């Protein structure tokens, strides 16, 4: 049985560990068997007190042990010599079987001699020094806890007492008549204030009529002698003007430049009326817009493009029937930068100002101030408003328009219950550029919008030109995303507009001397024209998809027709004669073959296009 072989296999598994333990797994939301149990079984543990040789403590102890060993070696040589002599003698005297008796006798004699010698040696030698007790190795893991207590200061309470606050009792009786009288007094004050407000516009109306020709005739409820004459006076004034400028009126109506036949494809611009007003001589023309209903009426905005010389602004409305004096005149504290007529309500005029405000003027109401105006509370822009555009009325038939500003916001303004309500449509972000702020903060910079235009057919689609020279194609539906970005110009985009006939095409101009024509589905321009100096404004004609005009800051107007010549302008003509005067804006009349050009000295010039410049496409 003992010799019988029994094979036993050693495995790393511990047979005593519990198996099939189940725990809830929150990740998989189910009960799972736990596989990885700890198989280690500990049979024997011993806490040692060994010290590593290489450590400081090990070196110290090895030095101590070697010094003690040196002391023991000094005492050792005497004992060693005695032992060696004994061994030598024993080896020499190996006994044989024949002479056992002799050997025993000799051995006894030798022993007695040795004992005598040893006794003499012991007497002669000094006693050996006592052995130094062995030092136990120190355990590095032993430690002692030590604690100390600090002295606690005793608590002290402090208290103050103050004089009581003075008080006084009072009483009074109030009855309902007293309350009633107080209410009646307040009502009287409010009614008086209302009467004063009503009286104000009437006075303004009279003043306007006396100064004459400022406002178009509005039939008042209670007519006085002046208002009855006003309409007749206006008609008489227009007749006098027609007589004065009869030759210009004849040219406007009937003159056609016969020399066009000998010029080939080129044409000319014939100067007609000049519109100027005493109060706007030091202001620049910053905006021009034709009225959509009355084709002879146009609005001109006056301000300043020089940010160091900002002052008041003016808004004037002229008609071709009376070039000597404006039909309407409004002044503002800040310069007018842009304006736009409502297409369905031609008496509503949206205006943007240099101080970031927008306003709506109602030409039916003869007030000197705008009917509606934004304020800091109602979300006005923080920088100049460069363009405003009316849009179709919303679902609730509320009028609304859009504005773009250097602060990077494009804002929708809605006229709800006699107040302007704003909503940010999109914020133009910079090209991932951040600006270093105080204490190392990274501030996101916004793009600066300078111009924009809405698509003629697709309501939600619009283009925005920026100060950096980029053009963003945007949608009203996406407030944070652009549909497309065009790297259009190297400087600010001064003007941008969709072609009224060809719905994919738009035009842009910039201070980098170029005018570019684009297809919004293609990233690169189709036509690029370098005009040799900064371009102030560009406009499509109302009668042909291929004709457009541009003005440059050297005072020249250029008219192009892509159908005739794709490379050169058909007409380049100096519009302003004075030096240092710059042309700023140009607009085609929607009905007549004329253009109006504004300049920096507040002068608006009307020019007639010669037949070569207004060829109708087939």
TrEMBL record:
One of its GO terms (cellular component) is microtubule. One of its GO terms (molecular function) is dynein light chain binding. It comes from the Eukaryota. One of its GO terms (biological process) is cilium movement. PROSITE patterns: WD_REPEATS_2 (PS50082), WD_REPEATS_REGION (PS50294). It holds the Pfam family WD40. It is found in: Cytoplasm, Cytoskeleton, Cilium axoneme. WD repeats lie at residues 486-519. InterPro entries: Dynein_IC (IPR050687), WD40/YVTN_repeat-like_dom_sf (IPR015943), WD40_repeat_dom_sf (IPR036322), WD40_rpt (IPR001680). Residues 48-135 are annotated as: Disordered. Keywords: Cell projection, Cytoplasm, Cytoskeleton, Dynein, Microtubule, Motor protein, Repeat, WD repeat. Residues 84-126 have a biased composition (Acidic residues). The keyword Repeat applies. The keyword Repeat applies. Part of the dynein complex of respiratory cilia. PANTHER family: DYNEIN AXONEMAL INTERMEDIATE CHAIN 1 (PTHR12442:SF11), DYNEIN INTERMEDIATE CHAIN (PTHR12442). Belongs to the dynein intermediate chain family. This is Dynein axonemal intermediate chain 1.
